[in-house]
TrEMBL record:
Residue ranges with Polar residues bias: 51-63
Domain of life the protein comes from: Bacteria
Domain Glucose/Sorbosone dehydrogenase: 85-415
Native organism: Pontibacter flavimaris
Region listing for Disordered, in residue ranges: 23-63
InterPro entries: 6-blade_b-propeller_TolB-like, Glc/Sorbosone_DH, Quinoprot_gluc/sorb_DH_b-prop
Listed name of the protein: Glucose dehydrogenase
Membrane-spanning segments: none
Listed Pfam families: GSDH
Amino acid sequence: MKLSRLILLSAIGVATIGTSCNEEKTTQQENEQQEPVATTQEDCQPIDRGTANSPEQKSTFEGQTRACEMKSETAYDVQVLAKNLEHPWAVEPLPDGNLLVTERPGRMRIVSATGQVGNPIAGIPKVDARGQGGLLDVALSPKFGSDRMIYWSYTEPRQGGNATSVARAVLSEDRSRVEKLQVIFQAQPTYNGDKHFGSRLNFGPDGMLYITLGERSDIEIRPQAQQMNSHMGKIIRIAPDGKVPNDNPFVKKENHLPEIWSVGHRNVQAATFNDQGQFWIVDHGPQGGDELNLVEKGKNYGWPTVTFGEEYSGDPIPNAVTTKEGFVDPVYYWDPVIAPSGAQFYTGSAFPEWKGNLFVGGLRETALVRLRIENNRVTGEEHLLKDREQRVRDVRQGPDGALYMVTDQKNGELWKLSPQQ
C-alpha cells in the first residue's frame, strides 16, 4: 500500500540544538566513504542519512541496518505543554493524566495535563550533575494506585567519584514531597567520571525492576562491561525493595555480582517491554554503532569486544569485531548514529496505524524514530518531528494513548503528540 505523507500541524518554534555529548558525536567524510546498502524488501529505499562512519563493516544478516523508509498516514498534532525545563531527562505519565518530569540538575516536577508546571518536589537527594550525570529516569511502582511509590535513578556523589544509584519513596498525598526514602541500589564501583550512566528503569511483567547501566566511557574502565564483578555495562534485575531475585542468572556463581541480568552494554538510555513481555533496549554505540537489542537472561551483547562502529577519533575499536560466536548480534544498528534515548512500544488505541511499533527518542538525529518490528526484525523506519530540530530525550505513552516527549536542552520542552482533531 502506498503511504501518503503525514500531515504535520504544530506551532512549535525551532530551538538551537545543544552541544552534543560524547555518544552523540559523529564524523562525516562524505568524499571518502561509500553508501552502505542493507534493505530487506525490493522497491524500497532507506532513509537518506548520509554516509556511514564505517562503510567497510558489513551487516551480519540482511536487514540489520537501513531498513525501508515508511511514512505514516496518520495526521497528528503536537502540543507544547511546557517550556523552560532545564535539561529534562524523563517523563512519566501519572494515572490521572498529569506527568512527572525530571530535570538533570536535580529537580523533579509534576506538570498538569493542561501544562501547568509545578514546583520542584521536595526530598530528592543530592545529585552529581556534571557532564551526562544528574537526576535521570523516574518510574511508577506497579502498585502506584495504592502505595504512591515512585522510583528514580540518579548520579550519586560519593567519596572518590560517583555512580548510578536508584532510590524509591512515597509521593506525599499533596504531591509536594517524597517521604520514606530508601536507596535500593548502588552501582559499583565508584568512579570519578561524568559519562555513560545508563539509568533507564523498567518494571517487567514479572514485577521485577530492570536497571540499565553504562560502562562509564573512559578507556580504563570500559573493559568492565565484560567483567562480572562490576555493575558497569550491565542490565540489573532486582525486586522492588532492592533484594536480588533467586532466579537471576548469576546468583550462585563465584565472583559474579548477583544483580546482573545481562552483560556487554555500552550506555543504554532507551529500554522498554513490549506486550509479549520481551525486553528491548537501544544502546548508545560508538560512532556508527547504535544498536537495538532483544535482551534475554544471562546473555552477552558484546561491548567492547563485539560492536559495529569506531572511536570518535575515527580509529577502530581496539581488537573488536562485528560478530562473534557466543555473543548476541544486534537486531538492528545505525551508522551514522541516532543517539537513542527513551523508548516506548505503542499499545494504545489513539493511533491504530502505530499499534505495536517501537518509538525511540533521537538526540543527534533530533527526531522521534518509529520502527516496525516483525518476527523480531526491523522492517520499516520513519523519523518524525525532524523539522523541530530538538533533541528528543524520552518518549512515553500516556493513559489517553497520546505520546509524551521531553527535549534535552537548556530550555527543554514537554510535548504531547495526539491524533489530529
